[in-house]
Amino acid sequence: MAEQHTFGPVPVPSEPFARADLEIYGIDHFRPSYVADIYSNSGPDDPGAVPAGHFTIFGHDRCVGDEGHCDVPDHQRRFDDRPSSPLTKAFKRVVVTEPLRSIVTTGVPELRITIVANIDPADEGYDGTIVDIEGLQLALFA
């Protein structure tokens, strides 16, 4: 089973860069595990499409504790030095330098990012949204 999300368009960077990272914020992983392929200005169904990168999420789609066991606290107390909850939303960074450079050289003015999540066939009975993120950011380094 695959789920597809497209983000953009955003302007293609005009300044030269040494490295480009796609940063994905606030990934909710209280769902089945998945592998997400990232495509830039193409999709998995386009002929010759090659993923620009990928990331994996080790999901936690079931809570086996009592009520409230899997609730993530909204904030941490001032002097609380305990580690954060394992269900705190995740962050992933994917290096997309070469795929972005190839888009810049073609002269295309806009960039679209497509994320395709593939889950294990054993989890195909899951009926919710697999990819749930708060935002994306393209970080360029000189």
Keyphrases for this structure?
142 residues, four-stranded antiparallel beta sheet, three-stranded antiparallel beta sheet, mainly beta, Jelly Rolls, single chain, 7% helix, 7 strands, 1 helix
Give a written overview of the molecule.
The chain is 7% helix and 38% strand. It is mostly beta strands. Strands 1-6-3-4 form a 4-stranded antiparallel beta sheet. The longest helix is centred in the C-terminal third of the chain and has 10 residues, at 97-106. It is flat, with a radius of gyration of 18 Å.
The secondary-structure class comes to mainly beta
Trace the largest sheet across and list its strands: 1-6-3-4
Distance between the termini: 39 Å
What is the rounded Rg? 18 Å
CATH architecture: Sandwich
Please sum up the structure shown.
By secondary structure, the protein is mainly beta.
Topology:
Blueprint: E1 2-11, E2 19-27, E3 34-40, E4 53-57, E5 90-95, H1 97-106, E6 110-119, E7 135-141
Antiparallel strand pairs: 1-6, 2-5, 2-7, 3-4, 3-6
